[in-house]
């Protein structure tokens, strides 16, 4: 399965450029009137080379729904800020060391500052959402606030599920547990909300709540694509080389993260391997042995767990491709509409 | 200086009851549809006995501006949630052990869960703000979002200033540094935003942005009252008995918090005392000696630093009382208007 890389890259790059220039403006204005050093820290994550997937989905959905790029600019910028706020806190919660090829804010500045910069990033995202009232009207601005509330609520619930597993040292989980968690933690803010918010931004003005059925359909599509995206992300973490992926290799094993691959291994390992793996996974990160981590990664490969992960990601992508024709039927036939299809393949093919 | 305790307590108690019943409803509905265990954790801080000062100011300002209690209910609830989210993260950032007489979420559940519960509390506050659109109209709902954005932005900036001092181990600060920090960190979310949001909730409906000049005046009043509140809060931390105040006694000295009293001491101590104090303050909390903390507290008392703190708090309250007649002149003469005056005395007289 391949995707149209030139189309996908063009729309990703354009989206990133739009959002970065909006962010420049936003940071500059706050630096001037507020406490400058905070905004220097705040600018760090967003200006590291990210994929910009969420803004790209939002812009493409907006244009495919009949709108113009400008109509989604503020919302796409807010989505990118929420994403970065989420990463800042996630890195503290997981004790992560690398993000987009550099030290995490946690490692560079310590937990207190990383937490506060995350909070500040969330606050900053509210500004563009408020400006939406003038840019695309009060009705759409409020609808988008509603989407953001839902997205953020699903994300913290997903995070709570995962942190609960860690606190209770639970590894006896099956794939449906993983899917429930990732639906909340990943799908809403990576695919569902960007799609829905894009459509709201671009839809024709009118007094009624727009496109209710269409927006519901996007939940199903975003769910399938988001799960594929997250499994692939976890695969990259296990397999990619550090320089390309931007995080430490197999960082998820160091962190004991419950992935489709790890859970598959634990379900299929013999009793001795199972015990050995659990002993490692329950050891705090700083006390883990690199040799044992390497052993676990190899054992997972031998057990077919990596291949299983790929299979499951592919299956979700195929299900997404099988529904997209129906779910996206209300959108204009255009490069933007085509990007949304290609994106379904891209999420399991990308190398970072 | 005394305050009308029966009036103040009545309005505080009523406000707390209003907000707690709204919170019960909110938590129950999310527990039902979302991931239950998160909402059990989320309910912990708000249902510990707090003062409920922020909702009380909001309700009183709403009614004094001509509105009814119901018109401010959703906003006051959101303010209480934002306050609790702030406390959850503040406790992690400061490594605090006690909050409202019990272990902090940090100590009970660890930093990752405490951070996420803080994030979830922020998200939950958005629900009532969105419901405002139906309850008090779209125009006021958006104005209140704007206030919340400003309040939260000032708070994270104030927090950034304070965390910057800690990171740089700075103690060579004067009172104006403290006031700038506390204006942002405390005044906006404790007094200014509750006052302004209350007035917006209660003001007569109309197509224009209401009461622009009046809202500006509230910034000055809230600044003066907020500084008095924060200095008194820091005094309580140094002086109050654990059982009443709900935090460990002199926790601020353990944390090395820059207060008006500590900064006064450092400016006036002789070289030997100054060196000894700095050595203690720069020692990580867990390595500090209890004897040295006790020595510092006593040395501050002998140096007149505690008395100085009281004097400064009193001075701010007196300045607040000198402006309130003019600044609050647009409000109805009523118990609610009187509460807002009495509250200016209460903030430096309360015992918790």
Which labels suit this protein?
352 residues, mainly alpha, Farnesyl Diphosphate Synthase, 77% helix
What's the structural blueprint in terms of helices and strands?
Two copies of one chain form a homodimer.
Chain A (H helix, E strand, L loop, with lengths): L4 H29 L2 H7 L1 H4 L5 H12 L4 H26 L3 E2 L2 E2 L1 H5 L1 H26 L1 H30 L7 H28 L9 H28 L2 H4 L5 H5 L4 H9 L2 H11 L8 H13 L2 H23 L7 H12 L6
Antiparallel strand pairs in A: 1-2
Helix pairs in contact in A: 1-2, 1-4, 1-5, 1-17, 4-5, 4-9, 4-17, 5-7, 5-8, 5-9, 7-8, 8-9, 9-10, 10-16, 13-14, 13-16
Concise summary:
The structure is a homodimer of 352-residue chains. With 352 residues, chain A is an all-alpha fold.
Question: What is the oligomeric state here?
Answer: homodimer
Quick one: overall form of chain A? globular
Q: Tell me roughly what share of residues is in helical segments of chain A.
A: over 70%
The fraction of residues in strands of chain A falls at under 5%
- What is the level-2 CATH architecture name of chain A? Orthogonal Bundle
Can you give the mean pLDDT of chain A? 94
Compute the number of structural domains of chain A: 1
Number of strands of chain A: 2
Poorly predicted parts of chain A = none
């Amino acid at each position: 399965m391949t995707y149209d890389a030139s189309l996908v890259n063009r729309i990703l790059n354009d989206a990133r450029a739009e959002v970065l220039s909006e962010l420049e403006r936003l940071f500059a204005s706050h630096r001037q009137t507020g406490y400058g050093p905070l905004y220097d820290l705040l600018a760090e994550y967003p200006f590291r080379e990210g994929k910009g997937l969420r803004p790209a989905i939002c812009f493409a959905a907006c244009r495919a729904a009949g709108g113009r790029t400008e109509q989604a600019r503020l919302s796409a910028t807010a989505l990118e800020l929420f994403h970065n706020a989420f990463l800042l806190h996630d890195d503290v919660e997981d004790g992560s060391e690398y993000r987009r090829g550099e030290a995490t804010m946690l490692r560079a500045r310590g937990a207190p500052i990383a937490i506060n910069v995350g909070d500040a990033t969330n606050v900053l995202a509210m500004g563009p959402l408020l400006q939406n009232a003038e840019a695309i009207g009060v009705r759409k601005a409020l609808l988008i606030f509603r989407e953001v509330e839902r997205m953020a609520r699903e994300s913290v619930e997903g995070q709570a599920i995962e942190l609960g597993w860690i606190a209770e040292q639970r590894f006896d989980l099956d794939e449906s547990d993983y899917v429930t968690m990732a639906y909340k933690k990943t799908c809403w803010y990576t695919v569902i909300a960007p799609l829905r918010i894009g459509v709201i931004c671009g839809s024709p003005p009118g007094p009624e709540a727009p496109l209710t059925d269409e927006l519901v359909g996007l939940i199903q599509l975003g769910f399938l694509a988001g799960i594929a995206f997250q499994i692939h992300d976890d695969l990259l973490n296990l397999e990619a080389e550090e320089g390309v992926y931007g995080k430490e290799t197999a960082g998820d094993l160091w962190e004991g993260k419950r992935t489709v691959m790890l859970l598959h291994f634990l379900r299929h390992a013999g009793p001795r391997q199972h015990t050995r793996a659990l002993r490692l996974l329950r050891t705090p990160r700083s006390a883990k042995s690199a040799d044992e981590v390497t052993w676990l990664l190899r054992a997972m490969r031998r057990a077919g767990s990596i291949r299983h992960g790929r299979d499951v990601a592919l299956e979700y992508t195929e299900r997404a491709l099988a529904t997209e024709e129906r779910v996206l039927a209300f959108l204009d036939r255009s490069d933007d509409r085509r990007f949304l299809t290609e994106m379904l393949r891209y999420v399991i093919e990308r190398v970072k």
